[in-house]
Amino acid sequence: xxxxxxxxxxxxxxxxxxxxEMQLATEVVLLDIVEGIPQGKALDMFESGPVGLFDxxxxxxxxxxxxxxxxxxxxxxxxxxKPGMSREDLLMKNANxxxxxxxxxxxxxxxPIIIMVSNPLDVMTHVSYVRSGLPKERVIGMxxxxxxxxxxxxxxxxxDVSMQDINxxxxxxxxxxxxxxxxxxxxxxIPLTELLPQERIDALVERTRKGGAEIVNxxxxxxxxxxxxxxxxxxxxxxxRDRKRILPCSVQLDGQYGLNKVFIGVPxxxxxxxxxxxxxxxxxxxxxxxxxxxxxxVETNCNNLSSVLA
Length: 310
Ligand SMILES: NC(=O)C1=CN([C@@H]2O[C@H](COP(=O)(O)OP(=O)(O)OC[C@H]3O[C@@H](n4cnc5c(N)ncnc54)[C@H](O)[C@@H]3O)[C@@H](O)[C@H]2O)C=CC1
Ligand SMILES: O=C([O-])CC(=O)C(=O)O
Fold this sequence. Notes:
Layout: E1 2-6, H1 10-21, E2 27-31, H2 37-47, H3 49-52, E3 57-61, E4 72-75, H4 91-108, E5 113-116, H5 121-132, E6 139-141, H6 144-159, E7 166-171, E8 179-187, E9 190-191, H7 198-209, H8 211-219, H9 226-240, E10 245-254, E11 260-271, E12 274-278, H10 285-303, H11 306-309
Parallel strand pairs: 1-2, 1-4, 2-3, 4-5, 5-6
Antiparallel strand pairs: 7-8, 8-9, 10-11, 11-12
The protein binds 1,4-dihydronicotinamide adenine dinucleotide and oxaloacetate ion.
The site of oxaloacetate ion has 11 residues, from helix 8.
Pfam family, one: Ldh_1_N
InterPro entries: L-lactate/malate_DH, Lactate/malate_DH_C, Lactate/malate_DH_N, Lactate_DH/Glyco_Ohase_4_C, Malate_DH_type3, NAD(P)-bd_dom_sf
Family: Belongs to the LDH/MDH superfamily. MDH type 3 family.
């Protein structure tokens, strides 16, 4: 198993180290456009092997030929937002970066599974899908796992219970229009609505929607990376170990939820072949409309990129 991480910044480097510690690959390649950064970080990670107890080889590089024959490619290259910015403000710059990165990746790997992280997430997943020519099962965006993890952590804190017992799904686009689905949120099987009053649930939903911005406002000069990296690695683990996990991911819909040819977060089964099944759950009218509104925003942003994708 060879896994390449493009972008050796906060998310990319954190994910690469976690991939190595979890021994999910025999080789992890960390690539960045800036000279020295991937080499230095990869060497530092490699030197943690004897104490972290892993044998994964980690190579830092600026040369795409080192990524040849990757099984999985995690794309984290691009700009992160600063306070006051929306993820959409990154659209044009990151679309050009993701386009160029995808073209380079595909020059050296025939049939990788691409996991997208760069923002705005659903649109960048679309860009990589179009440029790569890969089947839609092999281009998957990470957002729902992170947004659901945030919602789960807030619920666990509020109820003072283990995070392990919280199940929650946040669907839709990775932005203010995301759709936390309270109906499918439970604590060890007990519906959340039986454990918390509606106004507390509403407050946790609102905090989840703004979870990315909350961290950006603390950090001032960048965005979250521990939870995002852990979320991307959870998806990779499901694929590498063929776990058949049901996780919310951004995938291209083909009629499900009344939506067509748009990347949006929905529950999917992840296994060795990447996206193995899109799961259509019953949504109430409000959640269904919210998902459709969220998809309309992604579609508009994709349409604005026709010049980049040409
Ligand atoms: N999907 C999600 O839930 C999340 C998405 N993100 C997004 O992930 C991206 C990365 O975030 P961070 O790692 O915090 O940013 P960062 O600024 O720490 O790292 C980005 C890295 O990309 C590199 N880069 C830029 N252009 C490149 C190119 N053409 N080829 C190769 N590398 C290139 C930069 O040199 C830098 O090292 C951002 O777009 C951010 O918004 C971040 C967190 C969560
Ligand atoms: O907020 C950001 O820009 C980064 C991100 O997508 C997140 O942390 O959810």
